[in-house]
Amino acid sequence: MDNQHIIKLVRNNLVHQQLWDDVEEAKLEDTDAWVLRGLPPHKLSNDDPQLDHEWILPIELSQYKPGKLTLELMDKIFSELKCRRVTLGIVNDDGTVVYYFIYKGLHKPKRN
Amino acid sequence: MVGSKVAIVLLQRDGEAGTPLVFDIASIEKLRSIGVAGILTGTLPSATQQNAFLSVPLRLMAEEALWLVEKQLGYLVHGGGVVHTAAEAVKAEDMKEARNELERSFEAQREFKRQQHLEKLRRLGVKAENSSGTETDYSRLLESSLFIETCDSSALISQRQREFDKPEIQARLAQQLRTGCKCKGDFHVYKALREQGYFLSPGSRFGGRFIAYPGDPLRYHSHMTVQPAMDYRRDPLDLLQVVSGGRLGTGVKKLWVVGGVKDDYDSTDAESGRVSFFSVEWAGFG
């Protein structure tokens, strides 16, 4: 998966707008996808036991051509990262980034 | 075993796959106990616009009906023709038997009421007047208070319906119903969620294919809006859908769930291995 060109943009957004610490880039073996790993300034969900590092997958919001993220690819990313959830960093062509949790399997809604 | 199966009437118009309906109240109760809630759709001709307290028939989703047939919990019955054939098959002796049955019910009611009347007189210490054979005010009152019971379901029709429970007829009707489904993968998604104990109802209220409840919908809020099935290897995730669905889902406290169906999966194993689910929600920032 080719997402190297947006990794810096998402990294900058995390570090300077969302104030994350410790943000690092990494390339996955199996899928050739670039991911980020970082520590958020506070717990992201009330259901999390403690503040922990999160995995972020930067991905481009392509409105006019088909996307590349299949569920099979998602499974491969999960099996390589061995984590509970991956946060999608969805990049629009105007530079905005929105973040969505994606959990493997069926999951309960978070408590407020 | 056949008797305990639920009859699902498939109401079809020309060239239509049909609408699965259940008319029998005992059957509806049974369906609910096995995790199929359906939607009650029956209303009164005099109150057609009311939609809060609806009654039979219960409308099922196509996936629900197909699942019930596959699990041998129900069978499909073709259309409204059964009512006509059952009515035409009624003979003179059947009518006579029905009248006798009614007369027996009247006699039982008279006997019960007479007993109650005597009991009441005895308690009040009044001596009963012996007036057998003559028409008194009391016997006239008694005659006018007799009830005619109207049955909830017809024995004649259910007998006709059971004739549809043959493998070749079921296979044909199920095939017709299947051709009406827009997305074949949805049935696998339905089955996989049923295997995990979820109650499912139609999802258009929250912009999905199904809404999934962790138990009976009268006791629990739903947890998920399930999207139309995707091909596990080929269909890309539409990120604009992820954003709009995830945002709406988080607003109504539901996860936005997608299921990818593997078309090369060996069908003999459990359905949960065929479908790979992912749950999406807004991360709370950005």
TrEMBL record, chain A:
GO molecular function, one term: tRNA-intron lyase activity
UniProt keywords, alphabetically: tRNA processing
GO CC annotations, alphabetized: tRNA-intron endonuclease complex
Annotated ranges, domain tRNA-splicing endonuclease subunit Sen15: 9-112
InterPro entries: Sen15_fungi, tRNA-endonuc_su_Sen15, tRNA_endonuc-like_dom_sf, tRNA_intron_Endo_cat-like_sf
GO biological process: tRNA-type intron splice site recognition and cleavage
Keyword field contains DNA repair: no
Record SUPFAM superfamilies: tRNA-intron endonuclease catalytic domain-like
Pfam families reported for this sequence: Sen15
Family as reported in the entry's similarity comment: Belongs to the SEN15 family.
PANTHER family assigned: TRNA-SPLICING ENDONUCLEASE SUBUNIT SEN15 (PTHR28518)
Record-given protein name: KLTH0B04422p
Origin species: Lachancea thermotolerans (strain ATCC 56472 / CBS 6340 / NRRL Y-8284)
Lineage: Eukaryota, Fungi, Dikarya, Ascomycota, Saccharomycotina
UniProtKB/TrEMBL annotation, chain B:
Entry's Gene Ontology molecular function annotations: nucleic acid binding; tRNA-intron lyase activity
Keyword Transferase in annotation: no
Alphabetized InterPro entries for the sequence: tRNA_endonuc-like_dom_sf (IPR011856), tRNA_intron_Endo_cat-like_sf (IPR036167), tRNA_intron_Endonuc_cat-like (IPR006677), tRNA_splic (IPR006676), TSEN34 (IPR016690), TSEN34_N (IPR059049)
EC number(s) given by UniProt: 4.6.1.16
Pfam family, one: tRNA_int_endo
Domain TSEN34 N-terminal: start-end pairs: 17-78
Domain tRNA intron endonuclease catalytic: 187-267
Keywords, sorted A to Z: Lyase, tRNA processing
SUPFAM superfamilies: tRNA-intron endonuclease catalytic domain-like (SSF53032)
Active site per database record: 213, 221, 254
Coiled-coil region: none
GO biological processes: tRNA-type intron splice site recognition and cleavage
GO cellular component: tRNA-intron endonuclease complex
Function: Constitutes one of the two catalytic subunit of the tRNA-splicing endonuclease complex, a complex responsible for identification and cleavage of the splice sites in pre-tRNA. It cleaves pre-tRNA at the 5'- and 3'-splice sites to release the intron. The products are an intron and two tRNA half-molecules bearing 2',3'-cyclic phosphate and 5'-OH termini. There are no conserved sequences at the splice sites, but the intron is invariably located at the same site in the gene, placing the splice sites an invariant distance from the constant structural features of the tRNA body.
Record-stated family: Belongs to the tRNA-intron endonuclease family.
Subunit structure: Heterotetramer composed of SEN2, SEN15, SEN34 and SEN54. Interacts directly with SEN15.
NCBIfam families: endA
Entry protein name: tRNA-splicing endonuclease subunit Sen34
Organism of provenance: Lachancea thermotolerans (strain ATCC 56472 / CBS 6340 / NRRL Y-8284)
